[in-house]
TrEMBL record:
Molecular function via GO: nucleotide binding; oxidoreductase activity
GO cellular component: cytoplasm
Protein name in the entry: NAD-binding Rossmann fold oxidoreductase family protein
Any GO BP annotation: NADPH regeneration
Classification via InterPro entries: Gfo/Idh/MocA-like_OxRdtase_N, GFO_IDH_MocA-like_dom, NAD(P)-bd_dom_sf
Keyword Membrane on entry: no
Oxidoreductase in keyword set: yes
Keywords: Oxidoreductase
Recorded family membership: Belongs to the Gfo/Idh/MocA family.
UniProt organism field: Penicillium chermesinum
Superkingdom of origin: Eukaryota
Domain GFO/IDH/MocA-like oxidoreductase: 141-266
Residue ranges occupied by any Gfo/Idh/MocA-like oxidoreductase N-terminal domain in the UniProt entry: 10-113
Amino acid sequence: MAPRQLKKLQVGVVGIGRMGRRHALNILHLTPRADLLCACSPAQSDLDWAAEAIVPYGTKVCATFEEMIEVRGLEAVIIASATALHASQSRIAMERGIHVLCEKPVTFSLEEVIKRDCRTIASGPGTKIMVGFTRRFDDSYKDARQKIQAGLIGQPVVFRSHGVEEFDNSGFFINYARVSGGIFVDSTIHDIDLALSFFGEDIQPKKIWAAGVVVKYHEMKEFHDSDNAVGVVEFWGGKIAQFYNSRTGSSGYDNTTDIFGTEGKISINSNARKNRVEITGATGVRNETHGGWIDRYETAFVNEVNEFTAAILDKTELPIRLDSAVSSLKIALALQESLVSGHPIRFDQNGERMSSPSAVL
């Protein structure tokens, strides 16, 4: 008797730039319960890559999202297109009953996601949406979360996290930054999501403030952003989160997180390192670092798409709630606003904004 063929989720990838390519290859080679049915991009360089990397495996490649979304048999999409398109493309997919894994942030506008887009559609039967916060699927962060839930450090009180990315003088980053939504919305939002995952996804911010400087990317002054920024969030219930993000590092990618509790502390990635190899020479002992976040979280990207696929096929809850992603976005947008205005922003215990940007400390 021939072995029973298990159903596989038929997935499409929207946008096959750097992020989308990683997703496409993970589905092809590292996601046993999914098939890469189709992909799309308007960029010729992406289509050329696809012709060599994924078309030989039977993947249909389209030049537009509108064409791809009509591909017969499509059941789920991973949206890795420009952020400005995330909400509208998610809505269109879900209106057709197609499940969505959308890269962060799902939108630049909190009102868009709450009032008229993905959130309303996601409340309907059957169709699921998850925002991609990859660090949640990293083995080290998962282990730390389990230890905290088991009470190893008592009650978590202070969360501190930073991400330092290498300086890019090619010109690519500054063009990307102009349309990214800002340092807190584009990058620090990952650390914000981690804070919610450790403190509890229903925790509400009380007061938010931020400050930043421009060190190397001087063009960022034109669009009121910073290449080094610090944000602090005071939560209702007596917890605090502090975030630092830098775009101007000189020694690879560095992402470190500390959680301080009433009975101890847990740290993740305290020493940024590529692996356990140490090199000894005239200048001392050193280790190599990851070149970027996409390499540091290589396994987490695989875990993410596998868990998303399992939740769809097994009809179980997604590992990240949409409400939690909305909360992360709310905090990121408030931090970005405080960065520009120089003023703190306050919220009541229900998470509703209380004060104008002119409020005093």
